[in-house]
Every structure is written in C-alpha cells, then in structure tokens.
C-alpha cells in the first residue's frame, strides 16, 4: 500500500551572487532522509553514463556531462615563469647595461597576465609590480597572449620590452605537458654584472714579496739592450718616417726612446721621445677608465709588462700608441739574445724606401671647348703655355691654297652665294670669305676666321682635321654644320699639287687639272698643249655637256652626290661597280642610255671601281 504523497526532488542548482552554482541535495525524494551508505559521486557519474539495455525500443542517450565554468575549473590556478630583460644604462661609467629579473604570471581563469619584479635590497630601483594584470596584446592585429604562446627558452615582447623566459615552476610544467606542449630545456638565469661586482669582497692591500733587487742591480748594472727602430707615419696628414733608438735597461726592465737627428733636418733638438720608465703591455679590464694622466700605473692595474723577449728584430712593437718597427740591434744585444733565449742570429732588415715609379700622366677627356691642343696645356702646367708650333711653319710660311665653293642649302637665296676658302699650309687653318654682291641683300665679308676645322664623325678626344688632300673639285667640306662644294681653285693650287703629288690622290689631282686647263683647251689661240696631249679630258667634258643638255631637269639631280658619299666612307671618290649600279637604279639614273654608258666607261680607270666625281657633274648644274 502506498502511503507516500510527496514525490518531489530537491533542487541541485542554486544561485549565489547572481551566478548559477551546482549543489548537492541534502534530502531524498519527498524530503526523506538519505541513507548513510548512499552512492558516492563517482558511482553516480558512472550510473549516469551507463546506457540501459532495453528489450524493446531504442536506448535513451546518456545525459551530458556536468558543465563546469572556466572560472570554477581554473580558479586560483596560475602559471609562473621566470624571465629577465636587459636595460641600457647610458648615464653610468661603471655599467653599460643592467639585467633585471622578473616573474611572469598567467591566470588561467581569464587569460590575463602580470609581470612582477622581485624586490632587491639597496638596488635603488622602484621594484614590485612591473605590469599590472590584464590581457597583454600580442600584435597590432588585436590578438592577446595565450598560454600556448609561452614556453621556456623563448623571447616575448611586451610593450616594447623583450623578456627572455628561462624556466617555470612544477605546476606550470605539468599543466603545459598535459596539454600536449613540448617544453624547451630550462636555461640559466642571467645575472647582473654590476650586482655581482658589488657582492665581491673588498680588496685587501698586501705588500707583495719580490726577489732580491740588490742582486739584480749588481748583476745587470750598466747592461743595456740597444735597438734601432723606425716609426712610419706617412699614412696620416703631414706624417713622415722617423728613426729612433730604443734602450732597454736589464737592471729594472725600463725603456727609453731617443730620437735620431741629422744635420739640417728642421727639427727641435729634443734628445728623448720617452723618458726611462716601465711600459705596460696588458692592462686589467677595470683599468680602462684609470686616470693615467694624473696617477702612476702600479702593478695592480697591469697584468703584464714589456720584457726583453718582446723586443725582437723584424717585429713591430706598439708603445704608447705608436707602432715602432725594429730593424736592427747592436752586437751586445745579439749576444744576449743568443745566450738568454737561444736565438742564434738577428739579421738587419733593410727599411730604406724605394722611390715609386713615376706616375704616367693621363689627360682627362676633352670637354669640347677650344682646340684639343690648347685644352691639354692646362694639364701640363699651372700657367698654361701655347702649344709648340710645327717646323713646317718655317717651310710653308705665307703659302695659301684658295678655292671657290658654293653653299649647299635648301634656301633659294643661298643658291647663288659663292665663298672663297683659304687653306694656310703653315698652320693647317681655314678661313672663309664671301665676296659682297651688290643688291643681293646679304652682307659679304669674313664668314669664318682662321681656325682648324674638324671632319664630321671624328672622335672628340682625337679629332681629325681637314688637310690639303681633302680639297679638290667636287669635294664636299662640312664646316660646323654647313656643307660647301668645291667648284674651282686657283693656278697655285695646281702647281702645289703637282709638286707634291704624293700628298694627293690621282683623282683629286685630275679633277683640278681638268678644271683649270679646260679654258686653255677651249681657246686654240692660246696654244694650249694640254688639250692636244690629253684627248680623254676633251671627250669627258664633251660627254658631260651633252648629258647635261639631254637630261636637264632629271629628278635624280638633287641627291645623287649624297647617295654616293654615304657609301664612300674614306672620301676617295670611288665606289665599286656593284654599289654604283645599285645607287643608279635606286635614283632612277638612265644607265641604259648610250651616252651615259660611254660616260661610265670614261669614269672607270679599272674593272672594279668607278669614279663618281665626274659622273655626278653630268647630273648637276
């Protein structure tokens, strides 16, 4: 018979300070008293997870595990790491940097961190809480440090300071290993050098014992080692190489350095560069800031002094900031080193400097102003002198070659302008004069003063100037961008070319001869012998006049000369036959005409070349 009327269960969830808190019931169903031998919490959890095996139907799912918040599970659980960071000390002469040891705490309940610096007695530094507890930023993106980012033997940067984590406590190690993190081996904590220095005991000043000074005085009195050395200071400004004598006194291991003076060396007669004294070789590290200009150096500031074994011939030696090279010693010094150190011989080293070979003077590149010869004189002397004149100035003085030239210009007004070229053989200079023409609208007179004219496409550093061989009938002379065509020459030019035929090409000489002696052939009353002796010239001139009458106004008259000159790089006046006919075909020259074929035959001194100078005359005005 059922007598129970209340079947309610006690509440297992309550609220404390606004938070839901799980609690264990104190009474059973309906308020009945619980038995003493009730099941434990582990047995209850096992029963909750056990799925019943039903005969009919699907088994019910096991209830989920009990939820425990993070602030409950990780309450009062903190990870502790030992770390340090280095801080510069720019205002102290005793320490350059400082090592500060800190403890980094990581609170698992809310992933916050704090940095604490243990208090050190008499440190003079405000210590304690270095960084208050909060979520520390990891980067600029907004991420924060997590316990997965912490490990031993790594550096972390917090607000611009880099901390080195060296170790952690036992709980931290067990927690990280349980989460699958492999910890690095621990490191030793770095110590502050200044703090460790202060822990050392104070120095005790005890008079050290020494050997018998009197015996050493009686043994080595008046025994001095003499070395000959040089100090080479030529690398510095106003430096030079000087000779010195170094004396080493065996009685008390003192050294003096004497200067070696010569007559009229211009130096003050000071006998000593350094007074007799002991020279330190290795100082203790703490003696770098020792005021040497005020106090004398004692044995406590020096680890090693210079001794006789440090003075060896052939080796450099630094004394008071100067490096001396020992190149010789006297006979007593050689005998002492042989008996004391077993060195059989100390040969003399030749330190005489050989004069360096003369430096070859190279001219700087030409800047384009003035003549190259005049500009080069500024490199030879501080006050430049005019360049030396050639000896031909005496042989060719007052000898001038004159030519008549026309200006090549697309301007119609320049078509009838004529110019007189004067080539001065003494100086290789050219002057251009334009005869004034009445009512022409152009002022005549000097067009170009005496100057040397550079050929086109000539290198700037080694220019090539126009010479007498470049002037002949039909030649094109380019003067500072203006092109002139030589039309005629005076009789002196012909006489000079015939007397110096080796300086001119046969074609150039023939062009001048045909031009100057042509009027004599046309006037029989003058009794010219040249027309009778050279019938080929008469035939050539007759053919040129015939072609000029027949092909007057032909379209190839404008640029035929320039087309040939492009292929004639050496300005010899000749081109090969294949190039000749190729140019004529491109310029529509009627080479099939019988008269033109005869002209080509007369302009061909050989089988492979054709003189285009006389050929061009037939197609020009």
From TrEMBL:
Organism of origin: Chinchilla lanigera
Gene name in the database record: EFHC1
Subunit structure, interactors included: Microtubule inner protein component of sperm flagellar doublet microtubules. Interacts with the C-terminus of CACNA1E. Interacts with alpha-tubulin.
Keyword Signal found: no
Localization (cell): Cytoplasm, Cytoskeleton, Flagellum axoneme; Cytoplasm, Cytoskeleton, Microtubule organizing center, Centrosome; Cytoplasm, Cytoskeleton, Spindle pole
Start and end residues of each DM10 domain: 75-180, 221-341, 397-501
Keyword terms of this UniProt record: Cell projection, Cilium, Cytoplasm, Cytoskeleton, Flagellum, Repeat
Name of the protein this chain belongs to: EF-hand domain-containing protein 1
UniProt keyword Cytoplasm present: yes
């Amino acid at each position: 018979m059922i007598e129970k009327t209340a079947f309610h269960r006690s509440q297992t969830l309550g609220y404390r300070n606004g938070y839901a808190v799980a609690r264990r019931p104190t009474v059973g169903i309906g308020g009945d008293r619980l038995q003493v031998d009730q099941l434990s919490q582990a047995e209850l959890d096992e029963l909750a997870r056990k799925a019943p095996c039903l005969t009919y139907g699907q088994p019910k799912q096991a209830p989920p595990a009990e939820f425990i918040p993070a602030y409950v599970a990780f309450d009062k659980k903190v990870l502790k790491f030992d770390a340090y960071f280095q801080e510069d000390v720019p205002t102290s002469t005793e320490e350059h940097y400082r090592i500060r040891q800190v403890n980094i705490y990581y609170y698992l309940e809310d992933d916050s961190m704090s940095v604490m610096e243990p208090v050190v007695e008499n440190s003079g530094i405000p210590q304690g809480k270095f960084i208050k507890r909060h979520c520390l930023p990891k980067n600029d993106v907004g991420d924060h440090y997590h316990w997965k980012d912490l490990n031993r033997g790594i550096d972390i940067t917090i607000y611009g300071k880099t901390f080195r984590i060296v170790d952690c406590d036992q709980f931290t190690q067990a927690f990280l290993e349980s989460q699958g993190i492999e910890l690095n081996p621990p490191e030793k904590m770095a110590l502050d050098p200044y703090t460790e220095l202060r822990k050392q005991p104070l120095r005790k000043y005890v008079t050290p014992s020494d050997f018998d000074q009197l015996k050493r005085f009686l043994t080595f009195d008046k025994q001095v080692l003499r070395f000959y050395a040089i100090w080479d200071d030529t690398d510095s400004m106003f430096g030079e190489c000087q000779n010195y004598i170094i004396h080493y006194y065996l009685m008390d291991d003192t050294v003096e350095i004497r200067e070696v003076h010569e007559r009229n060396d211009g130096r003050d007669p000071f006998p000593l560069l350094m007074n007799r004294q002991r020279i330190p070789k290795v100082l203790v590290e703490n003696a770098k800031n020792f005021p040497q200009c005020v106090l004398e150096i004692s044995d406590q500031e020096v680890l090693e002094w210079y001794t006789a074994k440090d003075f060896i011939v052939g080796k450099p030696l630094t004394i008071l900031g100067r490096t001396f090279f020992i190149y010789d010693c006297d006979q007593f010094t050689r005998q002492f080193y042989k008996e004391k150190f077993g060195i059989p011989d100390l040969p003399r080293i030749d330190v005489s400097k050989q004069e360096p070979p003369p430096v070859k003077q190279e001219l700087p590149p030409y800047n384009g102003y003035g003549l190259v010869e005049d500009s080069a004189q500024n490199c030879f002397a501080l006050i430049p002198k005019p360049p030396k004149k050639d000896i031909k100035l005496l042989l060719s003085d007052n000898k001038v070659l004159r030519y008549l030239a026309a200006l090549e210009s697309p301007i119609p007004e320049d078509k009838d302008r004529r110019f007189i070229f004067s080539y001065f053989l003494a100086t290789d200079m050219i002057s251009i004069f334009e005869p004034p023409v009445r009512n022409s609208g152009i002022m005549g007179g000097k067009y170009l003063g005496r100057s040397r004219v550079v050929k086109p496409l000539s290198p700037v550093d080694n220019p090539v100037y126009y010479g007498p061989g470049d002037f002949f009938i039909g030649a094109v002379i380019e003067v500072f961008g203006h092109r002139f065509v030589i039309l005629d020459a005076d009789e002196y030019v012909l006489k000079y070319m015939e007397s110096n035929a080796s300086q001119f090409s046969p074609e150039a000489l023939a062009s001048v001869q045909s031009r100057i002696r042509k009027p004599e052939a046309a006037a029989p009353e003058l009794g010219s012998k040249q027309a009778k002796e050279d019938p080929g010239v008469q035939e050539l001139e007759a053919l040129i006049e015939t072609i000029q009458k027949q092909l007057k106004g032909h379209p190839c008259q404008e640029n035929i000369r320039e087309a040939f000159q492009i292929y004639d790089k050496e300005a010899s006046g000749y081109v090969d036959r294949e190039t000749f006919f190729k140019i004529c075909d491109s310029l529509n020259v009627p080479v099939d005409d019988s008269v033109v074929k005869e002209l080509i035959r007369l302009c061909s001194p050989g089988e492979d070349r054709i003189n285009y100078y006389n050929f061009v005359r037939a197609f020009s005005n």
